[in-house]
C-alpha cells in the first residue's frame, strides 16, 4: 500500500465554540524537505533564534546538544547559507517516507492454524493489519493469551492489548507492562513491541529461559496507546505526534498523552500550555480519553498483582531512560539497582549489532518532562521499574522517525536479546 496517495484533504469543519476555526487536518508529502541535525554547542536558544524565520518542523525537543529539523525545499538554500554546523539526516524526507510507506500486504492466518510469518517484520503496515496480526498471533496460542481492550480513543478507536500468561494461570503473577506508539510518528516502537510479543509466545515451549520468564510474570502489551494519532500519520501527516483531540476555543488539534498523566502534571518546564505545541499537556491532569483509560488500567494492574516492570517504547535517539522526568535531581528509591540493570541491558543490546544505548535518569539525560508515564508508574502505579526506551536511530546520519524498513528486524532482535537479560534479572 502506498501512503499519501488516497487521503483526502479535509476542509476545516466549522466549530461551534470560540471564534478560532481549527485547521483540523492537512495533507503533507515532505517532498524535497531536507532534515538537518544542528550542533548547538550547548546553546540551543541561539540556534532557535537563528532559524525562527524558517518553516522548520522540529524533530526533537529542547535537546542541549543538537536540534533536528526538517526544512522545506524552498528554504533549504537560505538555511544552508547560515553556515551552521550540521549533518544531514534525510537528503529528501519525501523520498524516504515514500519508501517506508511501501507496505507489504498481510494475509490473515486465522483458520490455517499457522503462526504469522516473520516476514511481518520486513516492512511497515497499515493500522488495520496490525490489529489483525495481533488477533492472529493470539489465536495461535489461545490457552495462554487473550486480546483485551481498555477503553476508546478520542475518535472512538478501541485501545487494545494482548495479555500473555504462563503455567500459574491467567492473572496470577506480577505484571510486565508495555506501551507502544504513544507518540504517533514513532512507528518502530510498535514493530519492536510486536517482535517481543512474537518471541514471548513462540519460544515458550522450546526455550527453558523463556518458559521461566513467562511462568514468573503476566505480560500486558499495548502496541498502540494513541491509535488516532497513528492512523493520522498513515493518512495525512507522517510527522504527527499527539492524539487527535479537539478542544473548544483552541485553534490546534492534539494533546501529548505523555504529558497528560495525573502526576507532577502541574510542575512547570516539562510540557507546554499552548494547544499548538508538540508537548501540549491538556487543560487538566489526565483529561485525554486515552489517558483516562490508561490510568484506570494501570490502577487495575496495581490492585491485582502489582507491576514489576513498565516500559514505554519510543523513538528515536537510543536511550534507556530511568525516573524521573519532572525533576533533574530526583531519583527513584531503588536508583542504584535501576542503573545497574540499565547498564546490563545496554550491554546486552550492543552484543547483537553493536548498537549503542545511553542510560540515565530521563530529566538529566535528555530533557525535563512533566505528566509523563514513567513518573506516574513509579510513584503512583507502584512499579518497581518504569522506564522509557528510545529506539533506533541514534540520529546523526541514520534518519529520525522514518527508519528504513530494513532496520525493523535488527531493532526487534537487539531489543528482544536485551529483554531476555532484563526479564531474567528484575
Ligand atoms: Zn516519543
UniProtKB/TrEMBL annotation:
Domain of life of the native organism: Eukaryota
InterPro entries assigned: CARBOXYPEPT_ZN_1, Peptidase_M14
Signal peptide segment: 1-18
Domain Peptidase M14: 123-426
Localization (cell): Secreted
GO biological process: proteolysis
Pfam family, one: Peptidase_M14
Cofactor: Zn(2+)
Any GO CC annotation of this UniProt entry: extracellular region
Annotated GO MF terms: metallocarboxypeptidase activity; zinc ion binding
Protein name, as recorded: Peptidase M14 domain-containing protein
Organism: Podospora australis
